[in-house]
Each structure stands twice: as C-alpha cells, then as structure tokens.
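Quality-control log, excerpt.
Job 1 of 2 completed; input and output follow.
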Amino acid sequence: MQRPFKQEFTNTTPASFIKRLMAMVYDGLLIVALLMVIAAISVALNDGEALNRETSPALAVALFRTALFCATFLFFGFFWTRNGQTLGMLAWRLRVQSLTGDRITWTQALLRFMLAIPSVGFFGIGFLWMLLTDERLSLHDRWSGSCMVQLPKPEKAKKEQKEKPAKGKTAGK
C-alpha cells in the first residue's frame, strides 16, 4: 500500500549528482558514529576485547558483522519509509520517493539499499549512470522503482514580519 507524503510538492526536480554525493557524505558520518556505538557494545560484551577472526568465535564475528549491516539498513530504511529523507538528505533538501511520488515501501527500501552497494562499489558506476540519462535515475533508483528529487526552498515568512507591529507600538498610532 502506497502512502502519500504529508507535505506534497508539485515542483520537484531530479536530484543532482553533487547534492546526492554531499548527502552521502553527511549520512556517512552518521553511519560511522552508529557503527562505532555498536562496536563499543560488542567490545564491552567481549570482556573488553575486540572481535576478530583469530581470537573470537566465528559465530560472534558473524553476528557482529550482521549487526553492523542490519543497523546500516535500518538507519536508511527507517528514514526513507518514514519521511523519505535521511538527515543528510534533509540538509540538502533531497527526498527519495516512489516513481508515483509516494513514500517508498520497506521492500523498495531493501531493494534500494542492496542495489546501492554494488552501485557504489563498482567505482560508482550506478551513480554515474544518472549523468547519462534524461531522468537522472541511478541504477538502484531504476531497479527499486524509486527516485530522488530536489525539494523546493521553503518560502520565507516575510509577510508575517511586515504585518507584525514593532515592539512597544500599537496599531493605529
């Protein structure tokens, strides 16, 4: 079931390559912080020792890596399905949405996340693809049935400032 956004924008444009890249940098910093917290918890649970393949049980290492992967997906999935914007995307006024303009589903979020890994991993070819098409869709956009759009700038409340009387003055004087 598709869910529309609370605030609809009719004048969105496809997000630019540079703004997507900048949002990825912002979100990357947040992801690193999140993964550091998970790593600190794993060290605390392992009697102060870091998990590694040489000294830790294979199951513990596998669980740790799975936790890192799942936390990263849940970060993106939560924000993408909730309001279409991660914190990095919010800063650059970007939003991910379905091709019909609705919020993406968890299935689309999982597809988008899983397909973005090779899209970035192979020298960013999935992102560079967007420079070659008119729709400016990356490969993981296209394959997950989603798109990233640039939201318009919020209108300034200049009217309100003009309509408010100056402090200490009353209307009519």
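Job 2 of 2 completed; input and output follow.
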Amino acid sequence: MLSNSPAPAPAQLAQTQTYGGATSNAKLLNPDISLIGDFIGTAGRNTISPSRSLELHESEVGMQAIIDPYARADAFISFGEEGVNVEEGYVTFTSLPAGLLLKVGKMRAEFGKVNTIHNHALPFIDRPLVTNNLVGGEDGIDDAGISLSRFLPAPKEWFLQGTAQVYRGDSSDVFAAHRRQDVSVVGHLRVYRDLGESTNLDLGASYARGHNGAGVGTTFDPANFLTNLYSADATIRWKPLRRAMYHSFLFRTELFWSARDQLSPLNTFQTQHAFGLYSDAEYRVNRRWTLGGRFDRSARAAVGSLTDTGFSSILTYWPSEFSQIRGQYRYGHLWDAPNDRFTNANEFLFQFLFVMGAHGAHPF
C-alpha cells in the first residue's frame, strides 16, 4: 500500500545532506578535548615539606589535533590552586626527510623517564625524592625549545632512538638563563627490545646542561656557573597479551648524577656533586586492583653530603579506565635544615583521578 505523504522535494534533500556534511566537516576540524581532575588528600606528619590536607591538585585540559598531513599539535593546560600553567604546547612535524621528527614549542624534556610523564599518568601520587632534589621537582625540565629525534640503525629486533633538544634555559630551579645565549641542551638515547610475546625491555641514557644562576649578584662571571645532569634508566614490563587487563608487572629504576657549579661557604668557586635514584614496581593483581612500591634515595644538589631516603607502598583501585582511586603510605628520612639534623616523615596520601573526553596516550 502506498503512502499518501508527498515525497520530499529534491531541494529539501540537497539542503539536508549539505547540512549533515557541514556538521561532519566541522567535527573533523575540532581538536580532541579532554579534562583530567587530580584530587589529593594528605594526613600524617611531615615538617620538611608539608602538604595541604585536601586540594584539587590540578585540572589538566588537553587539546590535540592533526593540523594537516604534515603536522599535529598538542596543548596541555594545568589549572591548580596556585594558578594556571601551560604545561606543554607544541607542534610536531611528522613528514620530514630522513625519518626526522621535529617538535617546536614548550614541552617536557626527554631527560630520563619520570621527567616526561604528567602527574596523572604516574603510578604514584607524588614524585620521587630525586626529582625534587636534582631535577626541579614537579615541573622538572619543562621549557620552550626545539626537539629533533630520529630512529637510528640498530641490530635486528632492537630499536634505537636518539633525541637532541635545545631550550631557552629556564627550568624550575635547575636552569636559569640571564642572557639570551644561556640556552640549555638535552640529549637522550633510548634502546628498546621485545624479549618475548609478553615482555619488553626499555633502556635510556640522558644528558642535560645549562646555566644555574648561582653566580648572579657576585663578583664572579655568571656564565661560568653551569649544571650538568646525567641519567640512566631501565624499565622491564611483563604484560601477557591474552590477560593484559588482569595481570601485568612493571619494574623501573632511574639513576641521576648532578654536577652543579656554585660558591662555597668560603666564597670560592666549587662544583658540588650529588647522586640519587629511585626504583618502583607495580603489579596488577586483577582487573581492578594494582599493588606498588617505591624506594627513594637522593643527595641534595647544593649539598651533596646530605642524603634523603624514603619508601612508599601504593594501592590503586580502577573503577574503570576513566577513573582511579589510589592510596599511598610514604616514609621519609629527610634533612631538617633549620634544626641541623635529620627527621622522619610518616604520611598517608590518597588520590581521586577522573578523565573526561578523549585524552591521548602518554609515551611508554
């Protein structure tokens, strides 16, 4: 039986199709937008670096898009209780000759592993002691600059990547540029290999050099005061393909060496040497729960004879891939400068993480 309703006019069909196409094109031109909330609470005793009892540590807005066939852009803006910060904002040129990959903008330096990872992607709530003592704390080496990387020839089944970076020279309290030519440089070499169907090995070596500003305001030439940083990292990951969401294991360790030019108590030029490391392990018990632990040991950049130590136990619950609930017990044996002695810190931290929107994966 035929319908009595009149057939749509061709003009109406064309208008509807054009409208739908315009909507689809507009969606393609919009970037992927995400929001990650990081809520942290702290209880216990820590007189050296006390934290707030409750805080929205940061809300990170991410915007990522393919600009054209030759480049993509990534921007991550962090909103915290202390203000707004462009954590990263850079463009990546992916179609350069000779297999080169070029990044331009503000970005986390390819120095070791933990320096490249955003807070919400860490397997623990805080950052290791060594990053606070030697590598600039939470922000780390994060600056405006240029990065050039390339895969290098390597033996069969090995992957070798080299990265060279030049930055303005201002990164937390690690580097400080007081002249235009006071740029900092970073070099990173990464080696990766699959050891089997479920296991892989990731090794890295890093170097960073920049001015530290220790000679500013003195009779010495500030250009002579440099900080040289060295790092070696190793990561082994076991993740069976058929049961990856139920069981996995990751072990990572990083070693850091710092050589910092500064003035001695006698107002003479000296180079202070410091060493630090951390090791962490994480085991996924089942689909929802992971257990972890971390060991910390680090000297102070300005006083290499003072060494802080600590350890953490971590328990994480995953309601889904878009949220995490994490608890962490943290012990520290830390130097108390005002009282000229070491003191103990015992704290319990808890964290609620949530993700909205399409947030791209961070590098492994």
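Post-run check on job 2. The longest strand covers residues 341-357.
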